[in-house]
Design a protein that fits this description.
The protein has 235 residues and is mainly alpha-helical. It has helices at residues 4-16, 20-53, 59-69, 74-85, 100-129, 131-137, 141-151, 153-168, 172-178, 188-198, 201-234. Helix content is 79%, strand content 0%. The chain is globular and about 65 Å long. It is a multi-pass membrane protein.
Length: 235
């Protein structure tokens, strides 16, 4: 096993030299997590809007379920997807297990409840605030939702960034359905776990640096979006 100082030096060298293996892992991580975030927003935002702006029997139960699923353990999601995509599962004929597609599916299932729950809270608060205006203009449901989404676009972008941050840092589900196969399904979190277990700290630290940088960038974007939303509100 390398010493910490030696490993840090090698890790910096890998990042500065744009090591091919390192950035192959980073590219796949970004592809999987961004794809999952787009899909989660495609499913989660409409669901959040529906729960925020409509009242129906069983809505309370639906809210409890969506909020509970926010804390769903990643390994449970991974196991669920594995069972469906394995050869003996109902979707085994698709041959998706141990592919980036399986990892995207797992991450999408993991972060869709987060997007739905957070967007529901944002839109419901705005719907209460604008209730009188909506009634005075006699707007239909579709028009209400369009108005809420437009006015809440910065807050909803923050929700999407939160989903991406959760996806890119996830390890449990993707290692189950992806298998951590070199040059095929190895992403940053699974590579860090593998390299650390092997005692090869240089690549693990290099990937950790990139992952921390991504986390800082996402948080900076969230802060920037919130600041922009605040300025727009008082403009």
């Amino acid at each position: 096993m390398q010493s910490i100082s030696e490993a840090l030096g090698l890790a910096l060298g890998l990042v500065i030299s744009a090591d091919a293996d390192l950035f192959e892992i980073v590219r796949l991580s970004l592809y999987v997590s961004l794809s999952a975030t787009v899909l989660a927003c495609a499913f989660g935002l409409p669901l959040g809007a529906l729960l925020a702006t409509t009242r129906f029997r069983g809505r309370g139960v639906a809210l409890v379920i969506v909020n509970a699923l926010m804390g769903l353990p990643p390994v449970v999601v991974g196991l669920f997807v594995y069972l469906y995509l394995s050869r003996s599962g109902p979707l085994g004929f698709l041959g998706l297990l141990y592919t980036p597609t399986a990892m995207i599916i797992a991450q999408t299932l993991l972060i869709t409840p987060i997007v739905a729950a957070l967007s529901r809270q944002v839109l419901e608060d705005m719907d209460r605030e604008y209730a009188e205006q909506f009634r005075s203009f006699a707007l239909g449901w579709v028009q209400r939702v369009q108005a809420l989404v437009w006015d809440g676009r910065y807050a909803l972008l923050t929700v999407a960034l939160a989903g991406f941050g959760r996806a890119v840092a996830e390890v449990g589900a993707v290692i189950i359905v992806g298998g951590n196969i070199d040059h095929l399904t190895r992403v940053m979190t699974t590579a860090i776990a593998l390299e650390t277990s092997k005692g090869e700290l240089a690549l693990a630290l290099a990937l950790g640096m990139v992952l921390m940088t991504l986390a800082l960038v996402v948080n900076a974007l969230v802060y920037s979006v919130r600041a922009t939303a605040t300025r727009s509100a008082y403009a």
